[in-house]
Amino acid sequence: MFSKACEYGIRAMIYIAQRSRQGERVGLKDIAQGIDSPEAFMAKIMQALSRQGLVQSVKGPHGGFYMDTQASKITLAQVVRAIDGDHLFTGCGLGLTECNEKKPCPIHDEFKLIRNKIRSLLETTQVGEFNELLEKGVLHLKRI
């Protein structure tokens, strides 16, 4: 459903929100290790998220990526749009370029319902919502 970049981006944002809550800035290497992603790929993703203003960064020996309390209210939909654009919310379930109400694909109506539920979920879920459950070890962000 999500591109690999988007998966890593969402996980990174949740990870940074958690660490920022603890008053920390997180380096690229720590993010990559913390969410089990390739560091070089993560650098490109973090650059895109930073450019969109979804995370802040400070250079130097005590630098890294962080979020203020307002940024932890960023929705998962904002992260998806920053990395993958709006295609998840508007695209055809079969990948057709010409699929709409007037010219639907075979799964158009059913997929539209699913797509709308996904949009609703992502637009109402904030990256900072998972902090407590991550700290308790109930949730995780990398393969175990």
UniProtKB/TrEMBL annotation:
<dbReference type="InterPro" id="IPR000944">
    <property type="entry name" value="Tscrpt_reg_Rrf2"/>
</dbReference>
<dbReference type="InterPro" id="IPR036388">
    <property type="entry name" value="WH-like_DNA-bd_sf"/>
</dbReference>
<dbReference type="Pfam" id="PF02082">
    <property type="entry name" value="Rrf2"/>
</dbReference>
<dbReference type="GO" id="GO:0005829">
    <property type="term" value="C:cytosol"/>
</dbReference>
<protein>
    <submittedName>
        <fullName>Rrf2 family transcriptional regulator</fullName>
    </submittedName>
</protein>
<dbReference type="InterPro" id="IPR036390">
    <property type="entry name" value="WH_DNA-bd_sf"/>
</dbReference>
<dbReference type="GO" id="GO:0003700">
    <property type="term" value="F:DNA-binding transcription factor activity"/>
</dbReference>
